[in-house]
Amino acid sequence: MSSKLNISVIGGAGHIGLPLSCFFQIKGHQVNVIDKNLTALEKASKGTPPFYEKNFKENLQSANNLGLNYKSDIETIKDSNIVFITLGTSSEDVDIELFDNVLEEVISNISKESILILRSTITHETILKVKNNSIFMEKKLLLAYCPERIAEGFAFEELEKIPQIIGVKNSNDFEIVSKFFISCGLETIHTTFEEAVFTKLFSNTYRYAEFSLINEFSNIAKKHNIDFDKIKHFSTYKYDRLSKLPKTGYVGGPCLPKDTKTFTHSYPVIDDILSKFLRTNDQFLDGIVNDCINKFTTKNIIQFGITFKENSDDLRSSGAFKLYEKLIENNFDVYVVEPNLAIGISDYGFENYRFEDIKQITDNIIFAVDHNEFKLYPTDLNNKSIIYAHS
Ligand SMILES: NC(=O)c1ccc[n+]([C@@H]2O[C@H](COP(=O)([O-])OP(=O)(O)OC[C@H]3O[C@@H](n4cnc5c(N)ncnc54)[C@H](O)[C@@H]3O)[C@@H](O)[C@H]2O)c1
Q: How far apart are CA 177 and CA 197, in angstroms?
């Protein structure tokens, strides 16, 4: 194999696919970004990031200058030494069907004896389906499961640093795939397929459980009319053993809740405590809605932030968006101020306002997401009635 490889990334215009494609191109390989989303392909090819990532513009421009290629047809993969799949996945039937269909198409177009790397978060069952596919076997393809472990927003920092887990059939396959990642400057870890699956799902499920646990205590305290913010202060003040206590706040986003569901489906146990956390987070939001009902004297609210986490423009499985929906169900009129999205009606159906234009409407404010921009507002908020969804 020559040192400059031809690589295709299917789902290449997505949150995982595009930073990854730029990364490999910048590391000296020739990458084809393959995606059905023509708008995202067009934007990226012109150097405009289709979504937020730190340092995205400069990385995208460097990759484009080095010849990053944009395509919408899967046949392009026939010239590739390595094909990555970075499609969106979940345990929902619609996502499984999409993944299976694209996989069929990939296997029928990929060249003999090339390498297929699954990077989407998947189950062991999916890997077995690929391994047992008759065309896959006939073509003598090398299969690897190399899960993505970056945090959205930090791809360009973390792709450089996080060791690459490589789930494969045997040491020979590991050597081949490892050589590629080492050419990109990465440390590699050899695992079996199932170890790679378990490691990826465990990591996100554990983080989900850890963040949810503090919400569970907050829910219990609220039920008993105890101020949990005070409890956190009393229990952590000059008490190092609890110094790493996470903040309370809804746990959402495209990975943690979804991967927890996939983990509990894939590895079911009796008396499963992990599924309880999926309800904990919903109950946490109900608690905030109750706070609004009890504290606010009118039905108008200004909601600061609606994306799934701070400084992000991603609304997928956003707790702040769920909070917005719950407030609407409870007959509140909610005015969203989201600095990371365009002003006006969003695809999700809410209207996004400039704070300046609506600040006279109400004194009721809820801080739903901790965006950096909001740290500039407090002087405008004297005499307002404020609820913090994260503390
Ligand atoms: N977003 C994260 O922070 C993150 C982190 C780690 C792992 N993951 C995992 O990575 C995977 C991808 O997640 P994502 O956030 O990038 O999803 P995404 O929705 O942003 O990207 C998926 C891309 O696939 C494209 N696509 C859909 N159907 C296609 C088809 N038939 N042919 C070609 N392209 C098609 C979409 O247009 C989209 O651009 C998921 O399994 C996710 O769980 C995500």
A: 17
- For residue 1, pLDDT beyond 60: no
CA distance 198 to 95: 20
Please state whether beta strands 351-352 and 364-367 pair in parallel, antiparallel, or not at all (unpaired): unpaired
**Centre of ligand 1 from the C-alpha of residue 365, in Å:** 34
Burial label for 187, CB within 10 Å (0-12, 13-18, 19+), is exposed
- Contact in structure between 125 and 145 (CB atoms under 8 Å): no
Structural domains in the chain, CATH included, are 6-191 (3.40.50.720), 199-388 (3.40.50.720)
Percent of the chain at pLDDT above 70? 99
Q: How far apart are CA 247 and CA 229, in angstroms?
A: 10
For ligand 1, atom 43, name the residue with the nearest CA.
121
The pLDDT tens digits for 309-368 are 999 999 999 999 999 999 999 999 999 999 999 999 999 999 999 999 999 999 999 999
Q: Is the CB of 37 under 6 A from ligand 1?
A: yes
Each residue's pLDDT tens digit, 245-280: 999 999 999 999 999 999 999 999 999 999 999 999
Beta bridge partners, 85, equal 10, 118
